[in-house]
Amino acid sequence: MHDQAYRLREITNSKIIKKADNQGNGLRILAVTSGKGGVGKTNVVVNLALSLAKTGKRVMILDADLGLANIDVLMGLVPKFTLYDVLRGEKLLDDIILTGPYDLKVLPGGSGIQELANLDYYQRERLISALRTFESDVDFLIIDTGAGISRNVLAFISAADEVCVVLTPEPTSITDAYGLIKILSKFKLHDEVSLIVNMVAHSTEASQTVNKIQTVANKFLQIKVKQLGYISQDLSVGKAVRKQQPFAQLYPKAKATNDINQIAQKIMGYRVNQGKGMDGFVNRLMRLFN
Ligand SMILES: Nc1ncnc2c1ncn2[C@@H]1O[C@H](COP(=O)(O)OP(=O)(O)O)[C@@H](O)[C@H]1O
Ligand SMILES: [Mg+2]
Questions:
Q1: Range of 60's domain?
Q2: How many domains, the chain?
Q3: Where residue 205 sits, what CATH number does that domain have?
Q4: In angstroms, how far is CA 215 from the centroid of its own chain?
Q5: Residue nearest to atom 9 of ligand 1 (CA)
Q6: Which residue, among 268, 277, 137, has the nearest Cα to 285 in the 3D structure?
Q7: What is the pTM of this model?
Q8: Ligand nearest to the CA of 44
Q9: What is the pLDDT of residues 38-94, one digit of tens each?
Q10: Residue 34 Cβ contacting ligand 1 at under 6 Å
Q11: How far apart are CA 171 and CA 209, in angstroms?
Q12: How many Cα atoms sit within 13 Å of 111 on the Cβ side?
């Protein structure tokens, strides 16, 4: 943990990163994360991506959940290769990318996510130049980071332009989300974090959940906590999961679909910062690993 803390501080202080920070462009890189698993993070990523794609945005998902990568499962896609094969120099990024509805792209991380920690100079350059080719072809890169505060998860959160924390109204989920936000604040990884409250019975429950976090965060942390939106508890979600199709595609009139569409609209209407671009993203990602 000491080692990790050191690296996190190094990221914040780095001049190289600051320079990359200024190379803003159209691409927005969003990390979707959670304190606790099972809160609906992967469903949020897939359906938010789809909702954005439906409006004509060019969206790519990076499945960076190391142990529980299942973006492909939720979309009924079968990846033959992953980032691992790209990093080994055996495949090109184009060979591993899957395409879903509305031209939604999925980049399966697989065991390549673990490999990111051990890249040599050439592999890193290969990754940067491969990702750079998407710079002008993608409006949103949305990352499913996996839950918790492992080095991998924090690296992706830190590298992204914006971070969304998914939580539910359950006390355990609230506590774990707060624990994660506390770390983002302590190591100054982000100035601002957005909350998506999932599986709510009604909108008041969502606001109450956000208020609980905001009250403590305002008192003890140096980070702005915003409510991005909420998603109703909806049987359509489980039904769509069993059919391996995004609920926003299968059930366009469902409550959950309406909720996720509102979140997509809000994201399109509000941008946290300028964005660091692909170079900034990869550089920042690597700094935490080195
Ligand atoms: N809004 C919702 N309403 C009802 N069930 C939900 C909702 N969101 C998620 N779920 C259920 O929770 C399960 C876990 O969701 P998932 O997206 O895989 O979570 P995570 O990625 O956080 O582990 C889903 O399979 C689904 O059955
Ligand atoms: Mg998941």
A1: 2-289
A2: 1
A3: 3.40.50.300
A4: 25
A5: 40
A6: 277
A7: 0.91
A8: 1
A9: 999 999 999 999 999 999 999 999 999 877 889 999 999 999 999 999 988 899 999
A10: yes
A11: 9
A12: 4
